[in-house]
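Exercise 3.2. Students should predict the tertiary structure of the chain below and write it as structure tokens, then compare their answer with the key that follows.

Predict this chain's 3D structure.
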Amino acid sequence: MSDSVRPDGPEDSEDDPLAHAVWRLRSRGCWEDAAALLEETAHHHAAPALHRAALLVERCMYTSGGWTAAEEALRTAEALAASDDERGAAACERGHLAYAATVLGVRDRTDEARAALGRAAALIAPSAPARALLDLRRGLLAENLTDTPDSAQAAYLRAHSAATARGDVLLSSSTTRHLAGLALRSGETAEARQGFAESLRLREEAGFLVGMAPALASLAEVEPESEAERLRTEARRLIRLLGGVPAWLAARLETDG
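Answer key:
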């Protein structure tokens, strides 16, 4: 399972009060409130429409709800997109929404996810900042829907290199975590432990509170049982603090407990 991420992290909001407010709400799992701050301009301009759609798509991944609102926001963003970059970003969000619906068991939309991410790849230039997020999402599809871990690793590595070069802490935390997951899948426990610990550190640095529980749970998979239980207990505490999100992880930890 994966959480979601966009490049609009804390480093993008330092000089913009609205962006900072949106980030603070998003980082605490208040996606609907964050999207509401963008609603007025999102009806007329592509950039806020895309940002608002991305927030609502992320809410779907974390809560397994809000699908209709995300679809409506995406249609608005698609209608306003005028450049290849904007159309590519909208396609990337559509692909991620389809991926989320599939991986969460809502409805199998694998073909739609593959087609949308392929369309995004054709529109977003290899050197564009949005390419790193696209590569991460193509990696998620390869790992979790088509079971091609070699392709997933190549995509994660491209995304990680670009995120690191840009100083994108939040995106780097996700690429590091998913590369660690592939290492664990290959039996490389020490490498996985190092990656999961680094991903957790990066999320703490970014202040991405809503993403902390998945990072804690991942690290728990490779720690001795006493430490693993401490990490899972902390993950459960954060999930309760945030009202039960991520929903998929809350259900899993309840079963484990």
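Discussion points: DSSP finds 13 helices and no strands in the chain. Residues 225 and 231 are 10 Å apart (CA to CA).
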